[in-house]
Amino acid sequence: AIIAAAGEVYAQHGYHNFSVALLLEAAGVSRPTFYRHFKDKTEVIDIVVAQANAQLLEQVRKRVGSGNSLEDLVNNGIDAYFAWGRSIGKLAGAIYREIHDPHSPASLHRKRILENLGGLIQTAFEAYGKKMSPRIYDALLHTIEHVGHQAFWPHQKSAKEITDLKNTIRIIILGTAQYSPGN
Question: What angle do CA 29, 34, 36 make, to 5 degrees?
């Protein structure tokens, strides 16, 4: 209950405006109960962000393994990313707002999730004979993050706008794969 409430409070207030008092009210628990389980707000937000990132990695892992072509792989990966964004709702906004804030758990987890996703995507691409520099995979992940977050933050976009964002990502990834040196 505390972690679920922490996700709601973090989604609404972000790391810097998150307080244990807000969390206690949302969770309906006492201060001693909170401190029996967590040392501070950072620890509980860290768990919320880690769970969100684990969901992303799992959704991408499930979807990129299916399909019969590189284009299927790209489409499935993009769909997984957007499904994840929809599934975590307003939490996506809090995470995106803070990915460059060194004090926020979102920033601390970002490097790890990018490394995990980069390795997963690299392995999947190489299965289709596309071997690219690790910097290219990193740039593609940053592109997905930059373009994709616009679907959910600062507010949910229309279905048409989301389709346009997905197509932008698809064109960049497939174009990069087609013209990348070493293929």
Answer: 130
What is the per-residue DSSP string for 68-118? SSHHHHHHHHHHHHHHHHHHHTTHHHHHHHTTT-TTSHHHHHHHHHHHHHH
Average pLDDT (80-100) is: 94
Task: For residue 56, give the amino acid letter.
Answer: L
- Residue 156 tokens, joined: 């949910």
Residues in the chain: 183
Q: What pLDDT is recorded for position 179?
A: 82
pTM for this prediction:
0.91
Lowest mean per-residue pLDDT among 12-21, 105-114, 171-180: 171-180
**Mean pLDDT in the chain?**
93
Sign of CA pseudo-dihedral 153, 157, 160, 162 = positive
Please name which of 5, 6, 151 lies closest in space to residue 85, comparing C-alpha atoms. Answer: 151
Q: Check the CA dihedral 65-68-74-79 and report its sign.
A: negative
Question: In which region does residue 182 sit, left (phi positive, over 0), alpha (psi from -120 to 50) or beta (all else)?
Answer: left
21-30, 51-60, 162-171, 173-182: range with lowest mean pLDDT: 173-182
Distances in whole angstroms, Cα of residue 144 to Cα of each of 75, 77, 81: 12, 10, 8
∠ CA 167-173-174, nearest 5°, is 85
